[in-house]
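pasting for the record
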Amino acid sequence: MTDAAPPARSRSDATGAAVRAALSVGIAVSAYGVSFGALAVASGLDVWQACVLSLFMFSGGSQFALVGVIASGGAAAGPAAIASATLLGIRNGLYSMRMSPVVGGPWWRRVLAAQWTIDESTAVASAQPTLRGQRVGFWVTGAVIYVGWNLTTLLGALLGDLVGDVRQYGLDAAAAAAFLGLLWPRLTARQPVAVAVAAAVIAAVLVPVLPAGLPVLVAAVVAIVVGVTNVLGRRSA
């Protein structure tokens, strides 16, 4: 006998929770686009160049790494900037393997999803308990951040020096706070707590000594090792 379909109320609740999570994360992250726009112009890029980066690269970590290296070394730092941005972008390729069964559908949907497969859309989708919630979380988060990030990039690039150091407004902490909000409810057992703590410690230790992007990738190995070995997890009977 097959399981009965979930009631409409449950599906509606799951969708609503996914939308709320997507909006809260999307708005928080989008606001930080002002910082990128201002930093990009301060690094020597034109307004249109900053906007093109957000339109087509659309990966905050990679974008900040790119303009950060350019700012410190000028045009001569181009190869290093590209290398740093590429290292940070590798993680999005890893996310795509997790999101592929969630996205599903025809090829054009997967092409669009590739552009929106970022930290935030993956995190919101993964935090939802149902497949429908995961899909809603992925698409709404991607759409909100894509539109918001590009608008705030333009705003920051136009305002330039008038914006000042956006860290004084706390925008640099908004994305981290949003991720912690998604992570906290999942820390209900020893295994996820151990993974979170170990990954955070490893990343913090390696940030001063490794190029941008590598600490995150090395920290991700913690989750892979734990998943393969099932350390602190429940053993199957």
